[in-house]
Amino acid sequence: MNDMRPLERIVDTDTVKISARNVQVHYGETHAIKDVDVDLEANTVTAFIGPSGCGKSSFLRCLNRMNDTIDICRVQGDILLDGEDIYDKRVDPVQLRAKVGMVFQKPNPFPKSIYDNIAYGPRIHGLARNKSELDEIVEKSLRRGAIWDEVKDRLDAPGTGLSGGQQQRLCIARAVATEPEVLLMDEPCSALDPIATAQVEELIDELRQNFSVVIVTHSMQQAARVSQKTAFFHLGHLVEHGETGEIFTNPRDPRTESYITGRIG
Amino acid sequence: MHHEEQHISKAFDRDLEAIQAQIMKMGGLVEAAIVDAAESLAMRDEDLAKKVVDGDKVIDELDFTVNEEAARTLAIRQPSAFDLRTVLSVIKISNNLERIGDYSKNMAKRTGVLVQMSPIEETGPAIRRMARAVEVMLKDALDAYVQRDPELAEDVRQRDLEVDQMYNSLFRNFLTYMMEDPRNITACMHLHFIAKNIERMGDHVTAIAEQVIYLSTGHIPEDPRPKGDRTAFETTGGH
Questions:
Q1: Cα–Cα distance between A161 and B40 in angstroms, integer?
Q2: CATH number for B119
Q3: C-alpha angle A164-A60-A250 in degrees, rounded to nearest 5
Q4: Is residue A228 part of a domain?
Q5: Residue of A24, A58, A72, A250 with fewest CB within 10 Å of its CB?
Q6: How many folded domains does chain B comprise?
Q7: What is this structure's pTM?
Q8: Do B219 and A250 touch (CB under 8 A)?
Q9: Is the CB of B84 less than 8 angstroms away from the CB of A249?
């Protein structure tokens, strides 16, 4: 029976991209993430959902060591990217973040031109040997960010002069410019109108061809629309992780059910 | 159970309750239609038959309302999980109830014709027993729905076999009557359609029971339910 489902909903790979085992996160005395075990697949959009303060953003930030920037934060357990421990002493967090890119809730373009916003990452990571290669990367990234047609005639204009939706797509283009393998998105659409949201969601679906995408969202409908896998967090625990359609029609855990159906749980 | 907790949005709870109240109202009317139609046939009561025919309009209107309310809920609330299954199941249950109502109406219409002919002995009570069995199944299926009881629903599903067997037995009786005396043919043809329609009602009740199982468990039962209708392979000369 399952074979009759529309093809694109089937995750066509079971290659594990990121594997987390027994992950604990403390902020000072606060135990924010408790015993999280999860495998995130390649070429798959995984949505993290859960009420505010449930730990989904904290866990997301573990995946590219953004928590390193917080002094009181302690991360324990194993997080493997393609089987390599990302918390190993030999791993350079800056190199890691080139492989595991991030897009934030609020669009945060650099106070530079549109061109330089995109070119910044490839420059510092030495991805282009000359100007024409850099031009190519900029164009390709802006096309991937579905914003090329809107900005191609004003690449020298400041990125901050774009509309909110355009700025967010610029940030996504910037994140993909370094050819990351994983893209982390922390509520990328919460500041966008429905049209810009739809454009970003369409973009996420296209990005899945090349990247693993992990998206934190407060919108159940968005999680249902864009992801193939959904993980539900509650009070620091990963309660349930499974195929998105299954989670939204027949969740196994009562806490998941209460949350996604808008009940007091 | 967890889905008996209230929604944060109380209007959502009220909407879901209102749709389900309409299903229960429809179910009550359809149960009465089955019983009345069979009673009108057994008692040769034309007035009661007419009441069943006229009453079908209300059932159709309720089906329309349920579908409209369900569509509205899908559009406005985007229900998920148990709520989604509730909305999907009311659409299907309403559709099945509406069809059972149609079959009852058809039975009552044929009663109007049959009362003009001389009765075929013993068939009225036999059809009434069969209709009664389906009506009890429907009542149990709707109880199972209200109580979210997949076990009772499965029991209903299994009981459809008995209705199929009653139909088989009537089918053979009608053949015998028709072979005995060709003047019985017109009446027996009508009676056979009635019996076949009641057998189909049983299938629709089974479909309702399957929706209850889907609603409660998230899965449609996959095992084939017992099939008792063998008349597709029946001949007159095979003795």
A1: 79
A2: 1.20.58.220
A3: 95
A4: yes
A5: A72
A6: 1
A7: 0.80
A8: yes
A9: yes
